[in-house]
Structure formats: C-alpha cells, structure tokens
Amino acid sequence: MKVLAISSSPRRDGNSSALAEAAVKGAVEAGHEVESVHLADYVTGMLDDCRRCRGADGACGIGDGYERLLMDHVVPADALIIATPLYWYGMNGRLKSFFDRLFCYTSGSSPVGEEVSAALQGKRVAALIACEESYRGATLGVEAQFQELTRYLHQELVGVVVGIGNSRGEVASDPSRPLERAADLGRRLFEIRVTDYRLDTPRSNRVWGSPETAAPADETY
Ligand SMILES: Cc1cc2nc3c(=O)[nH]c(=O)nc-3n(C[C@H](O)[C@H](O)[C@H](O)COP(=O)(O)O)c2cc1C
C-alpha cells in the first residue's frame, strides 16, 4: 500500500518528526511503499477569501506547492501519517492551513473538486503529536479534531500517539516509549480494527474469535 508521512513542525529534526520517522520505519517493515514530506516545503500560504483569490477556472490562486503536495502525494496515498507538535493545545498553524485549504480543492467550483473529494475518502490516518505537557487534557482538543475531520472525510483514524518532550529529540526519553508505539502504529496501519457501531449494527459478541467459534449475532453478551 502507499503511505505518505507528513511532518508539519518547523523543526525538521524535532520530536514530532522523530515520531513520524518511527512510524515510517514500521510501515516500511510491513512492506508498504512509504514517502515522507515536510509540509514547509509545500505550504507557505494560508487560506484566503476563496471567492476573491481563486482563478477564473475556479482553481486556487495561492502560488505555493500546495497543489503539488495534494495531487502528487496526498491523493495517491492509501494512508497518511500526520505528525504535529502541539501548539497552544492544537495542531500547528501550517498543518491547520493544510486542512483549511482542502476547502478550496474540494469545493464544487474547483476543477479538481470531484477528483480530490473522492480520493480523500477511505484513507487510513495515523496522528502523531509531540508536546511538553503530560497533562492528559493538553492533547484532547487536537485528538478530537483529528477524529472529527477524518469522520467528515470518510477516513479511518487508526491511532494517535502522543510523545512527551520539549527540547529537540527529547521524545526518545519519554518512558512511555512513543517511538516504539509510533513504529507499531506504522507497522499495523492497515490491520488495526476500527469500529463505529450503532445500536443496530449486526455483530458477533466476540471481537477476536474466528467466524466458526463466534456466537450468533443476536446472542446477548
Ligand atoms: C508556539 C508553541 C506553542 C506550544 N504550545 C504547547 C502547548 O500548548 N502544550 C504543550 O504541551 N507544549 C507546547 N509547546 C511545546 C511543543 O509542543 C514541544 O516542544 C514539542 O516537542 C515540539 O515538537 P517539534 O520538536 O516536533 O517541533 C509549544 C511550542 C511552541 C513553539
């Protein structure tokens, strides 16, 4: 499968990039075709007033590498590994701009709107967050944002790894071993079971059993 790792921190050798590298290592070990990019090489502009700045053909008028990133790297990928430092309890601004600007490329007036909207769906997404605070609430907002934006895009959020560190590379010293957890997430990107049950979802009472050993769907647990 094709995997794209997006590092969004301005610190290329910082903590979130270290998490991304670990996840990439895991995905490579699992035999996937993996590519890594730094967002700063493509995205310099922020979303503007689309009605004013898009071209006559509806194409985004911001002249940086966003379209190249989206069409050549994001669109073909089956899974995205997205790494961010925690900034003010959210994702960093450049990554937020990446998501904001999807608006322009998925709108009905964009020449690639239909293609991009279709291609974004079905991707598996792993989120990696580096931050200083170990307080659990610090990352809840950004984790919820990943959950909601993947839901909106019909994607599967397969996992979130939070690594604690502040100075460059310090995440490697986090005793909760986020680098190992990121590698594991990368390795199991396409195997991780993601459920979104509703009351009436037909299902067995066994999660991991084989179909032969599983109880009938209507059996109570
Ligand atoms: C602008 C800015 C805002 C930050 N905000 C937070 C924060 O709200 N909570 C936190 O725990 N760490 C915060 N940090 C610390 C970084 O998340 C932390 O140093 C992280 O390891 C940086 O990752 P990086 O090396 O990938 O850039 C902030 C750092 C910067 C530069």
From TrEMBL:
Claim: Flavoprotein is one of the keywords in the record: yes
InterPro entries given in the database record: Flavoprotein-like_sf, FMN_Rdtase-like_dom, ISF_SsuE-like
Residue ranges annotated for the NADPH-dependent FMN reductase-like domain, each copy included: 1-154
Keyword tRNA-binding: no
Alphabetical UniProt keywords: Flavoprotein, FMN
PANTHER family, A to Z: NAD(P)H-DEPENDENT FMN-CONTAINING OXIDOREDUCTASE YWQN-RELATED
Entry protein name: Multimeric flavodoxin WrbA
UniProt lineage: Bacteria, Bacillati, Actinomycetota, Actinomycetes, Streptosporangiales
An MF annotation (GO) of this entry: oxidoreductase activity
